[in-house]
Design brief:
55% of the residues lie in helices and 0% in strands. With 155 residues, it is mostly helical. The termini are far apart.
């Protein structure tokens, strides 16, 4: 079998497995993935699915996203964005509304820095008037309520 172009995934997995002081058989038992299949992955002969990578990551206690990047399933920037979002969503010290506002601010900064191509990247002043630009949280009318106040004849 010829080696597939999966970067250095196999070498990385072998290093992580050895660092965790696990044999290939022990990793197979922990993941539910066969020993021969894991061996082929480590030797670069097989490209594992995202599900298999997730099982391996869990058993080795490493980031599944890192494995996705090394396997070519996920772009490095996508991994960083996913990890940032996961950390925000997992933070027990902030409530769901605060998490939502924080993610909106994060998205706004990403658009401003050109990481989210598309129509949202060209919103101009609206992006500046979005959430986080004032001390008070957004009103129930939504994060753009400040921008609409100028046009509301009843304010």
């Amino acid at each position: 079998m010829a080696s597939l172009n999966v970067g250095n995934l196999g070498e990385y997995l072998r290093e992580q497995r050895r660092a965790a002081q696990l044999s290939l058989r022990q990793l197979a038992d922990a993941t539910g993935v066969s020993n021969p299949y894991l061996s082929q992955i480590e030797r670069g002969l097989r490209k594992p699915s995202a599900d298999v990578l997730q099982q391996v990551a869990k058993a080795l206690r490493i980031s599944a996203e890192t494995l996705y990047v090394r396997a070519g399933i996920l772009d490095e920037r996508e991994r960083e964005e996913l990890e940032t979002r996961a950390v925000i969503l997992a933070d027990p010290s902030i409530n769901e509304r605060q998490k939502s506002v924080l993610l909106q601010i994060y998205d706004s900064f990403r658009r401003e820095n050109g990481y989210a191509p598309g129509p949202d990247a060209e919103t101009g002043p609206e992006a500046e008037a979005g959430p986080g630009t004032h001390a008070a949280p957004p009103t129930p009318a939504g994060p753009d309520a400040d921008a609409k106040e100028d046009h509301d004849p009843h304010s």
